[in-house]
UniProtKB/TrEMBL annotation:
It comes from Vagococcus allomyrinae. InterPro entries: DUF1642. This is DUF1642 domain-containing protein.
Length: 191
């Protein structure tokens, strides 16, 4: 975090230097709009430095959804984390595309975002199975890919071949075969 604060301070130093030269006799003057933008950036950066300096984050690895991990892997991970922190600081309003990442970011603290730098784990997406009636469980689509194959659960814990799938696939399959979707507990996963 100290490196992040140091980088923002260096950026402000460069902006302040540029602002100090705005009326230099040997150069063309900066337009008032450029001066205003740079002055606002300095204030924004100073505020961000104060917030980051006040953040007490612990050194624990956090869990993130798959889509966050994919975003972080799109480019330089440090830059992606810095972009998330900056978006959070700006209030995640107009500059970020709507979607899961934006919604996730709205619910995160600065502490969580800073902890990404330390490391993160990808949350396991929940898995689901499809149940038909009291004892039938969808197993797969059979050899021809059109006929559903079921397994009967006569003995509690006796079912071994059930395929756990994501929610979208489970809902689609349940709709086709007239079943219900139930979340798989850790003891159920037999993939």
């Amino acid at each position: 975090m100290n490196e992040l604060i140091k980088g923002i301070k260096e950026l402000n130093k460069a902006i302040r230097y540029k602002l100090s030269k705005k009326y230099c006799p040997n150069q063309a003057p900066m337009s008032p709009s450029v001066v205003e933008i740079l002055e606002k950036q300095v204030v924004l950066n100073d505020s961000l430095i104060k917030q980051l300096a006040n953040v007490e984050y612990n050194r624990k690895v956090i869990k993130v959804p798959q889509f966050v991990a994919e975003y972080l892997k799109k480019g330089n991970e440090d830059e992606q984390i810095a972009a998330l922190i900056y978006q959070k600081f700006l209030g995640v309003m107009n500059t970020m595309e709507n979607g899961d990442l934006k919604e996730w970011l709205r619910g995160q603290s600065f502490e969580t975002l800073l902890a990404l730098k330390i490391g993160y784990e990808v949350e396991e997406e929940p898995k689901y199975y499809i149940k038909v009636g009291d004892k039938l469980y969808f197993k797969n689509w059979g050899e021809d890919g059109t006929c559903p194959v079921f397994e009967i659960d006569d003995v509690p814990g006796g079912v071994t071949g059930i395929t756990a799938v994501d929610l979208q696939e489970a809902e689609m399959t349940a709709g086709i075969i007239g079943g219900t979707v139930e979340e798989v507990g850790q003891s159920w996963i037999k993939m």
